[in-house]
Amino acid sequence: MAVRYVAGRVAAVVPVAFLVTFVTFFLLRLVPGDPAAVMLGPQAGEEQIQALRERLGLDRPVWAEYIRWLTRAVQGDLGDSIFLGRSVWQAIAERLEPTVTLTVLAVGLAAIVGVTAGVASAWRHRTAVDHAIMLVSMLGVSIPNFWLALMLSLLFAVQLGWLPATGFVSVREGVGGALRHLVLPATALALQQAGIIARMTRAAMLETLHSDYVRTARAKGVGEGAILWKHALRNSLIPIVTVIGVSFTVLLAGAIVVETVFNMPGLGRLIIQAVVRRDYPVVQGAVLVVSAMAVLVNLAVDLLYAVIDPRVRYE
Which of 91, 85, 83 is closest to 39 using CA atoms? Predict the structure, then answer.
C-alpha cells in the first residue's frame, strides 16, 4: 500500500510543478527590463539589442517560448544561463551546498530548541517557566529574520569580533570553519520557526498529558521523565513532525534573504542576481529545483507518519 501511496503522491506533484513553472515563467516576463539590453549596456543601439534578442531566442512569442522551455525541462534540460555562460544545472550545482547546509542546520536547530522548549512549557504548565517560554517564542515568531540577521552580525561579528560576518566554508574543508560561518545565519533563520515549533509542541503535549493512558502511567508509579519523553512526546510527534516539515520549506525560502545579508554564495544570491539581470533560465530552473526539494521533504514527512505511529496505514 505504501508503494501505491508514494506513486499517488508523486503523481500529484506533476500539476504542482506545472503551476510553479507557469507562474514563474510568466511573472518574470512581466518584470520591466530586457536581458539583451542589460547585457549590451546603455550604449547599445536598437539594432544590436534586437540581434542579440534573436540570437538568445527572446524574440519568440511568450507562449511558444514557454512550451519550448517546458518540453526541454521535462527531459531534464533546464537550458543555459544567459549571463553565466554555462548550463543552469551547473550554475545551480555550484550554489546548492551553502543553501542546503544552512537550511538543514537551521531546521535542526529550530527543531531541537522548539521541541525542548515546548516540552518544558507543557511540563511546567501555567507557571513562570511556561509564561517565559511562550513570551520568548512569541517574540521569535514576531521578529523578521533579516532584521535579526543584521543585529546578530552587528553584535557578534562587528562589535565583538567572535564570528565572521560574511562568506561560507564548505564542510569538506573543515567542520569547525563551516560552523563558524553558519552559526549566525542559521540562528537568524531558525529563531522564528523554533517559536512556532515550541508553541505546537506545547499544545500537542498538553493534550496528550491529559489522556487516560498518561494518568494510568502516573498511577502505576512511572517517573515523570519517562511519561514526558517516552509516552507523551512520542504520541504527540505527528503534529510536531508536520510543523518541522513545513518549517523546512519556509526556511528554504527564507535562506534567500539571510544569504544576502551574510553574503553567502548560495541559491538565494544566485536567484536575486538572476532576477536583476533578467536571466530567465536561471530563475526558472532554481525555483523549480527549490520547489522539488520542498515537495520531497513533505513526502518524506508523510512517510514518517507510519514509522512514528504504527496505527497509520497508507490505504
Answer: 83
Q: What is the DSSP letter of 80?
A: B
Determine whether 17 is exposed, middle or buried from the number of CB atoms within 10 Å of its CB (0-12, 13-18, 19+). Answer: middle
Please tell me which residue, 38 or 149, carries the higher pLDDT value. Answer: 149
Supply 58's cell numbers: 527572446
Cα(117)–Cα(104) distance, integer angstroms: 20
Q: How far apart are the first and last CA of the chain?
A: 6
pLDDT score recorded for residue 197: 93
Interatomic CA distance for residues 51 and 55, integer angstroms: 6
Tens digits of residue pLDDT in 271-312? 888 887 778 888 888 888 888 888 888 878 877 877 776 666
Task: Report the run of H or E that residue 260 belongs to, with start and end.
Answer: helix 237-261
Opening angle at CA 140, ends 308 and 120, nearest 5: 50
Tally Cβ neighbours within 10 Å of residue 306. 15
The reported pTM is: 0.81
Task: Count the neighbouring beta carbons within 10 Å of the beta carbon of residue 175.
Answer: 10
Dist. CA 132–CA 203, nearest whole Å:
16
Residue 166 CA from chain centroid, whole number: 20
- DSSP letter (8 states) at residue 82: T
Q: What is the 3-state secondary structure (H, E, C) of 85-123?
A: CCEHHHHHHHHHHHHHHHHHHHHHHHHHHHHHHHHHHHH
pLDDT band for position 237 (cuts 50, 70, 90): confident
Amino acid in position 24: T
Tell me the pLDDT band of 44, cut-offs 50, 70 and 90. low
Q: Is the dihedral of CA 161, 269, 96, 301 positive or negative?
A: positive
